[in-house]
């Protein structure tokens, strides 16, 4: 089958955004050490769109409803984080997306959730689902880190030491990510290192 099928796939948020539409939420199933918030926010900035995030939990439905109504009208992106803690709102969200008459073309609803047995099946069926698993191995870790580096970041400092230092920080970040897998043998206490720590 070839090397193409052996290499890990790097998540491409822009490709998922192009595949989606305003009435189709994008759901990220969370795993330990993965949080797509930074990637989603940077894509929104790159596209020149407003971005708002709400961490779901007790009493956050009011804020989520307000953010949703505002972004449906104005065309921004909303991210509802940890939706396994606000399952009651998920059915209301799907109903609103399917029944609202007018919805802005650039509106997108991003959702992060842990796997939960009571998560609404109808919402899962109507959405694009993805997972953002941490990379396996040093090579995959470096590839993932480098996929987030932009040309602007490479050229922001003109000193010749900048790019080797960027490599060293990226390498150290990949080592830290790998050590996390060994639990108490890697660290004295568990740390939640993820891509936001780079």
TrEMBL record:
Lineage top rank: taxon: Eukaryota
Matching InterPro entries: AAA_lid_11, AAA_lid_11_sf, DHC, Dynein_heavy_D6_P-loop, P-loop_NTPase
Alphabetical keyword list: Repeat
GO BP term, pick one: microtubule-based movement
Domain Dynein heavy chain AAA lid: 162-198
GO molecular function annotation: dynein intermediate chain binding; dynein light intermediate chain binding; minus-end-directed microtubule motor activity
GO cellular component, one term: axonemal dynein complex
Pfam families: AAA_lid_11, Dynein_heavy
Residue ranges of domain Dynein heavy chain region D6 P-loop in the record: 22-131
Nucleotidyltransferase keyword on record: no
Similarity section: Belongs to the dynein heavy chain family.
Protein name: Dynein heavy chain 5, axonemal
Lineage, highest ranks first: Eukaryota, Metazoa, Ecdysozoa, Arthropoda, Chelicerata
